[in-house]
Write a structure and sequence with these properties.
The protein is mainly alpha-helical. 51% of the residues lie in helices and 8% in strands. The chain is built from four helices and four strands, in the order ββαααββα. β3 and β4 form a beta hairpin. The relative contact order is 0.10.
Amino acid sequence: MVVGRRGRRRAAGGVPLTFEVIAETLRERIRSGGLRPGDALPTQAVLMREFGASSLTVQKAMALLKQEGWAVSRPGKGAFVTHDDHAAGDADDLDGPEAPAPATGTTARVEALERALSEAAQQIADLRGRIEALESGNGERGR
């Protein structure tokens, strides 16, 4: 067994597995500036066609990028580049020069979940308000 970067097992002969090739290709696109912070990563369907890979293989590649902090998911919108160079501490970010550097790995996932939870709570509050307005309007119509 050959062990690759970060202890991941490689296929016989040290050849990277397809999901690793996909992940490394996307990392290189980010490093080279082909994909910038905030850009959407290619969709699963696009990556499946480009690499002739299965959906599970593409999902594994995307999970790896998210785990390493290269990408973050935005529910209902897709996966997006978190920053230019995962190794650089002074990477560009989405909010301008005054904002802190983007979070990586677990921190990025927690922040994304917190944003999604906040958005969901706001949507629930909005819906409650609409329901109350409808109920009070219906009560007046019945009089």
